[in-house]
Amino acid sequence: MRKKLNLSLIFFFTLIMITSCSKKFYTGRYSTNFPSYGMFSQSIELKEDSTFIKNFRGDMMNDNSVGTWSIKQDTLILVFDTIKNPKSRYKGTEIFKIKNKKLIPPDNDWIITNLKSKNIWDTLSNKQKRELKKTINLTPKDFKGTMRKQYYILRDK
């Protein structure tokens, strides 16, 4: 009887630890490491119910886009809900790599590898491939006018 009780307690506490740590670790408000062009900043608030709010503000603008989020391995996937918010600035899906409480936009190699694994890369023309590589490499300017890599960092838990 005592052995059954110990096993059930271990199972119960293990179950609590798994469910409580899975998404709470990633929840919180992430904001960009610097304002683009000295005035535009963004933030992503990941909520425990797997919903998020992405805020874009600056130069007399302030709008929110909403959706759901999920995590696969070290990748955060944001899916924007344009039914709830039809005038949303962001549409479709956005992907970030998760590293040390940072959300980092994927680089060229990561995106191209993903496209190749899904057999999409070979269907693109050379012109489409060049255009895609150009847009992936774009990085915003900081307040001094220099190009820097932008990412989101956890600010509030």
Write up this protein.
With 157 residues, the chain is of the alpha+beta class. The chain is 26% helix and 33% strand. An eight-stranded antiparallel barrel has the order 1-2-3-4-5-6-7-8. Strand 3 (51-58) and strand 4 (61-72) form a beta hairpin. The longest helix has 20 residues, at 2-21. The termini are far apart. Mean pLDDT is 78; it is low at 12-23.
Low-confidence stretches: 12-23
Q: Specify the oligomeric state.
A: single chain
From the spread of the alpha carbons, the general shape counts as globular
In total, the number of strands is: 8
Largest sheet: 8 strands, antiparallel, barrel
Q: What is the strand arrangement across the widest sheet? A: 1-2-3-4-5-6-7-8
Based on CA atoms alone, the radius of gyration comes out at 20 Å
Structural class: alpha+beta
User: How much of the polypeptide forms β-strand, as a percent range?
Assistant: 25-35%
- First-last Cα distance: 42 Å
Number of helices: 3
- Sketch the topology as an H/E string, one letter per element: HEEEEEEEHHE
User: In which range does the helix fraction lie?
Assistant: 25-40%
Average pLDDT reading: 78
